[in-house]
User: Fold these one by one.
Assistant:
Number 1:
Amino acid sequence: MKPNSILTAAACLFALAATAQDTARVEVIFTNRLGPLNISQMALGQGGLSDDPMWDSRVAEVRALRPRVIRLFVQEYFDLLPKRGRFHFDTLDRSVDNILKTGAEPLMCLCFKPRILFPEINQDVVEPTDYTQWENLIFRLVRHYQQRGARIRYWEVGNEPDIGEDGGCPYRFKPDSYVRYYQRTAAAILRADPQARVGGPALASVHSPLLPALLDAARTNRTPLHFVSWHIYTSAPGAVRKTIEYAKDLLRKYPALRPETILDEWNMDLTNPALDPRFQPCFVAETIWQMKDSGLDYSCYYHIRDWFVEKDMFAPFFSPHGAAFMARWWNRMPQFDGLFDYQNNVRPAYFTLKLLSRLQGERLPLSSSHAAVHGFATHDEQMRMDNLVLWNFSTDIVPVELSLLGLTRDMRTRHIILDAQTTSNDENARLRPEPFATFSKGDHHLELKFEPYAVHYWSFE
């Protein structure tokens, strides 16, 4: 995890505030279908902080968000190779099973260093003393979950390998060493499961030279590469979009590869976070809109639950500096990452994802004249209903003229407003429902005022 500067976010918000008084003209067309929105691919991850299943008491709430995947750090504290030739997967099984209970697929991020194969604690010593034993361990790990029927397709090689312990993992690679390590690890994964999807590098910065080195190896040596991944922490959704555009521009130089794009850690700037409680829920919606609009395949919001770090858990495989950094960051810094906080209280951002999770089915055309007002609309054939989510990612009130065009029949509608400021975590207090209204078949025009960082939802049934 590498927090970014908030300066870009401040500039972005200033620009949005400058235009916030302009009326937003929003049109939704209910008679056209654009294909699946696949909102479930805007999914979740959990930080690599403990061998405990950190959110096991929140399985039902996570399942309600309907994530397609949940990213899991396979870190050294799981102790997968306690002795030479002995494999231990029981502890990791608990966290994998937690994910499976939600209906999601685990995305397994491999970022561990068994002491037997990495006897020196040094983030710059990145390759095992015996690659044959390393490959056997990876083979056994993948085969173990294949035999358990765990439905794991995605295996990610490394986590923030461009910054090492500062990213919460014990590796700091150079381009050549990462390519070697990736090739040997990916080969072992695919020997165990030829249907697996392998990728990486899960970069702290998408601009790291590790990514073009990996792409070169995939093109030149036919190294399997099914997805590329990276991270960003910024309070400017436009900056998130720029990383996607950069990755896609880079991939155009390798037209034969066609890997998926996965931004599998993201959140607002966590070093200098926005303190307005309305900001983060709206930021989540706007960032996901930017991801979808720029063609990202998957994302994993970082993360599900905040957790206190035991320094002694990291000391066996981190340097003293690295272990202290982990404990200091998680135990002393104010944290805004989790959908659930340290005490397991639900944060307002959860309810944005809850509203977005209702956007199942086929996407409906939605246009907005305003740079700060965006949204999604879908037709859900299974539920026999339409859904609309709109928001105002700006610091001012924005007048909104909402045109609902071509309602296909007389419908009952419910309008809900997300309240990020209430002290109550009752779902009906956070997602404040208005009484049902009835709309006749045809066109309807509404005039509304969206408060700063407002998130609105309508159901039509």
Number 2:
Amino acid sequence: MFASAAWSGIAEPGDSVAGLVVAALGADRALTMLIDRSEPAQWLAALGAEGSDSDQAGGDVGQVGVTVEVIAAALERWRPRVVSRVVVGSLRSAARFEARLLTPVHPLWPEGCRDLDLHAPHALWVRGNVRAVDHPGGGIAIVGSRDATNYGEHVAMELSAGVSDRGFSVVSGGAYGIDGMAHRAALVSGGTTVALLAGGVDRLYPAAHHDLLLRIAARGALVSELPCGASPTKWRFLQRNRLIAAITRATVVVEAGHRSGSLNTAGHAAALGRPLGAVPGPVTSVTSAGCHRLLREYDATCVTTPADVVELVLGPTTDRPSLLDPPPPRSSGSVVPSSPESVLPGSAGSPMRAGAVSDDVSPEAPGVTDPSTTSGDADTPAAEAASSGAGTSAADDGAEIRVLDALTRRSRRTPSDVAVRAGLSVRAVEAALGILLLEGRVEETETGWRRSRT
């Protein structure tokens, strides 16, 4: 862990040569060679030896084009930063601010970072809830201009609150304008929000957002690939954007000028194959010129509502059959699937689908009943399912059916309450509620969820 912490300060973010040597040799061995002032030829020989043992490492060496000259130039960048007291000072500062250090071998390391390959961070310094970094429901990046208009801030607020209510985390850069509004809306909605910083997590920047960033740390997380004490720079801001794109499932640009830094985040998202959305604005607004450019030249999806944002990740809701659709006919010799996952429509890779049925599924506790649904009226889940015509065959036995059965039109219930009733994890329930909300079959009130009255 000490070596990973050291490399996070030795190499600048996105340094592919550092990424190669750490990936091939390991952080400990690479740091030892750096401290021992090994010559470039020794580095190249070590990388070549590792490459002969690993096809992946050998391919990376060839891909980066590592030569003695490249290694020599890298060593010139790294050696002045090999100061043990600086690393120790960063770790002490992290302890003072209760920040944690995540490395690629940590179980909570965000999987999206692996898509960055040699440009992935060596470590992530997290101040706040470390589990928020790789949110179970998935994260959505909402970014835009620092010089936002009232229109842009309003749209950012609506989108952020909407995706938060649907179980996603909101990820942004903590800056003025759109970023700040996205974070605030997520906090007000009671959701999870993550701010990626271009400096150490102990240096809250911009200073005017000091209180906001403290609230984010209390309810979500502040994250940086740079050690505590590191100062934000223009380069680090640009490199920070690749992390915003990598750890999220989609990126939405709300407002951006023709040369806005938000377009840099959009470019990283597109390069990583992440869905990209852009909010249109007035054709006379210079703060929307970048969004219009994304729509016109980069095949971004037009986004105007939270449902549009969720659709970027889940795909069109029309592609999923309604729960009211009759089950397909089965031949007399057919066998009812033993696993609910085998009959669920939609992509298993989506954040609200993955693990929606199999995760933490357990049989209902015998004898547990709800006093509010034992009076014999027609408001019980079973009665509602029958009266609405919803299918009750084994082929329709999915997480959404189970969540729908746990809700009534009369009572408001929290996700944790629904989870107990449905025998699912809270994560699976929140995912199913998001899908049912898109289909118009449930609605959320101030006190909880219930079935739609329509």
Number 3:
Amino acid sequence: MNRKLIRNGTIVSMDPSLGILAGADILIENDCILAVGHGLEAGDAEIIDATGTIIIPGLINAHLHTWQTGLRGIAGNWTSVDYQKNIHRGIAMVYTPEATYLGNLLGAWGQISAGTTTIMDWCHVNATPEHTDGAIDGLEQSGIRALFAHGTVKPKKKEGEKHFSEIPHPRSEIERLRKGRLSNDEALVTLGMAILGPENSTKEVMLHDFALAREFGLVSSSHTWNRKNRVVKEGFYPIAEAGLLGPDHNIVHGNYLVDDELKMLIDHGVSVTATPTIEAQSAKADPLCGRVKKLGDKVSLGSDTDVFVASDMFHVMRFALQFQRAIDCRQEANDNMPIERLATSPYEALEWATIAGARALQMEDKIGSITPGKKADLVFLQMDDLCLQPIHDPVNTVVLFADRSSVSSVMIDGAFVKKSGKMVESADEIAHQQSELSAAVQHIFELAGYDPLASQ
């Protein structure tokens, strides 16, 4: 039995029954939280002094194309049309299993270093089983908690071949993974499905994919916009009529959804993930944070992809909050008078990045709050940071002032993966893998005939 007693931290639990506790303790046994409170005793436990830290639940990035870590920053001046052309119909077609492994490994390490302990890895570069295995290898080696959402590629249609929208999700791969290396739902890396949905598949393929996910007991997730070129014009209604729509499905984006369809989705328990930092660059409609709130639910948040903008969840959370506040202000009566009350709070934004993310991944019984019985996934923020002091309200500090540099330590499953400002993985190993990724991506650019500087 391995026990740790974290002493004297300021705990932002995100558990309504516990709230915020100053000078409090967390008792951990093996990988789980045993108790939270003041003056806890455990004579045989390792004592960890948390004086001068704010402790929050590990942040949850509910939508991340981790494989694209090696393409960081190439799309800083792209539209979504550029993204589809350059990534899906270009670079992705020559992306290698090695680069997929390295991108997932370094991307996951980067998430951990920045205070994210869980991701939904929305992997849609799976041209072969070797790509899939490389992606999973990277996640497992990193030590992150991840729902590996197995996706499919979206190449340009060739003469004599079916369009990707007409190709069902490969049952053989889901069966191989579900009965093989990702059969254990208690492991750090578990299986989900990244499916095409009504946006990108025919009705027959859509029904097949939803049924496949339900058959294997998997969370499924789909990119959803409701653009004019949506393949299934009826949207999610055929899925609901087939009895296949529920809390085990997650939609990402959804900016153009009409009110009736969005309400129908939420009434069925579907979770919604917003990626405001990306949507602000590529969508003509606002993120769904406020619209979902009005329907009685909460969005989760994702960073989406490193090709556009930084993927640390402090940045995403703060941007999401301030963007939604701008929307709230626009919706007030335009009488040129000051706003009397803010409609969206920092606490809500922290919920989006914690407990709402846990729900999107169907892990709310395991993660998302510092609650006895849940996994010990914790992030420690150093309170003496020059950019944080003085601290009057811990939640405001976390959401509006903290960033990746504030993260001193990170714990996943009761074990430190970052401690005292340094990753537990050796700096030499990280540097080696960074060099390997750079070389692998440069080779891919050559294969694709792509010049990242010319594209700007």
Number 4:
Amino acid sequence: MSNIHEAEQAFNQVNQETYRLHYHLMPPVGSLADPNGMCQIGDTYHIYYIYNPLACITDERTACVWGHYSTQDFVHFKREKIAIYPDSQYDKDGVYSGSSLLESGVLHVFYTGNVRYTGDYDYVTSGREQNVLSVSSLDGIHFNHKQLLMTNKDFPHTMTKHVRDPQIFKEDNQYYMVLGARHLENKGLVLIYESQDMTHWTYLNELTTSNTFGYMWECPDIIILGKHRFLIACPQGVEGVEYKYQNSHQCGYFEVHGDFRKNGTLGEFQQFDYGFDFYSARTFINQNGERILFAWLGMSEASYTKNQTAQDGWEQALALPRLLKYKDHHIYQIPIPQLKSLRHHHEQFNLQQKFHKNSLCFEMIIHFLTSTDFHMHLREDCYISYNCQESLLTLTMYQCGDGREKRSVIIQDLYKLQIFSDISSLEIFINDGYYTMSTRIFGNCDDIIINKVNAQADFYELLPYQIEW
């Protein structure tokens, strides 16, 4: 692991000015991906994530670890030591995604250990291992020895070698594990296992759609909101349909009907986000019983996946944490209330006159008094527009998109936009979080221009996170 330690020592050499985000979690060096195993122990939140310190100094395949931040208020963070290394024969090529379960003061963590063979393999039906491992901790920082729970031999024989990303939860005094999977017939699904002790697992069932919806489902997360059960997942290989499914892979949820353990069925897939960069969503419940979602502010296997910040020694970030709420069979995403602590200067504007301001790090809440066309210009050439006649909200970028061009979503009645702009990110919450649009964005121009519209706005300059490195 010496090369990982050496890469981390280069943190002081990383360009801390160009495009480093002010109020988003980023890797110290290298790259970041899926959030994992988030939990609250006492008054401290723990946020783990896929982390590859070597990603920006070599083009060779290198093993990822679990990075770790902790916080008590989502404003002040501490970068903790690496939580899990790829230091066993069962995870030597990467500590992949997983989840955690806090019970009786012990944090139980489950993850996929990746092993990749050298040779002439297709790495779908052969050439790799996807092992389920577990570790535990009393403080969320120090973990005990690894325990191998399952290998590919324990999965149904109809599966490819792609079975990963375990989610664990407890219900009716029984433990359940949900795994994302790829069927030999190239159909995405999740596998359900049960256990009485979190060590010995028995296969129960699979959940999938009647018609094939992508060839692989990653990062499964079965949750309950408003007494309704949902399966969050990231289907890969879904064909685009008009304004839906426009990214290389998708991130969203199905409502689960019936008993997920026996004969459950899935409703229509709903996208979480209609922007360019939102993937690998994972959730946890805090001590107030609130369901909080984290996601990777990036997109797997897209033409723009590798950001231009890689030349500065780092890339990728986590999206803002979001509180999930249920209403009318739909999941709303709301910025967690702790983010209000970042506000430090408030102005109110009547947008019936043309608006022009300069800022890169801000929150802007626009209340539309009537349904009307809308046009907003950000940075060098980013545009947010609403066509009232077509009920279409569109995000368009050119040079500042770095390969990202246009995304749209149908909104029948646009009444509110809540926009979070950071140095190199943009997150738009539409109609109180009914939909969102998230993206990375680049360029140093700080223009904010809005053509006159029948609306009012609250504008806040935002302070940066305080991170103890």
